[in-house]
Amino acid sequence: QIQLVESGGGLVQAGGSLRLSCEASGRAFNTYTVGWFRQAPGKEREFVAAIPWSGMGTSYADSVKGRFTISRDNTKKTVYLHMTNLKQEDTAVYHCAAGSFFSSSHRDYAYWGQGTQVTVSS
């Protein structure tokens, strides 16, 4: 079993940037796919990006493609989400999750962090 803790959220103006971190504890983290999901008030949870254990072959939602970059450092047991050119519609609680499959479905992720709030102002 692993535990995940997100950090790096905050308030930023539209057009700005943030880097979220997802730090893991526990064994075998380096064998898991890690995904980022977000949920805005009144909306369903939405896939943002995923990265397999190898760090190769990342996946992004169309809404963030070209603006967000997911990466991982297995030596630090940390996955990052670098967000640029932020828009108001990116405002949400961002969660990282770990699972055995490289997937955009939240159902394929067994372990979840508590989330970090990202608020983009106009």
The count of strands amounts to 11
Mean pLDDT: 96
| 3D shape | globular
Order of helices and strands: EEEEEEEEEEE
Which class best fits the helix and strand makeup?
Answer: mainly beta
Alpha carbon gyration radius? 13 Å
The major beta sheet can be summarized as: 7 strands, mixed
Number of helices: 0
Provide the helix percentage.
under 10%
Give the topology.
Layout: E1 2-7, E2 10-13, E3 18-26, E4 33-39, E5 46-51, E6 59-60, E7 68-73, E8 78-83, E9 92-99, E10 109-112, E11 116-121
Parallel strand pairs: 2-11
Antiparallel strand pairs: 1-3, 3-8, 4-5, 4-9, 5-6, 7-8, 9-10, 9-11
Looking at this protein, list some descriptive labels.
mainly beta, 52% strand, 11 strands, 122 residues, four-stranded antiparallel sheet
Would you kindly provide a brief summary of this structure?
The protein is mainly beta. The protein contains no helices and 11 strands.
Descriptive report:
The chain has 122 residues and is mainly beta. The chain has no helices and eleven strands. Strands 2, 4, 5, 6, 9, 10 and 11 form a seven-stranded mixed sheet that branches. Strands 1-3-8-7 form a four-stranded antiparallel sheet, with no helix packed on it. A hairpin with a 4-residue loop joins strand 7 and strand 8. The radius of gyration is 13 Å and the shape is globular. It starts with a strand and ends with a strand.
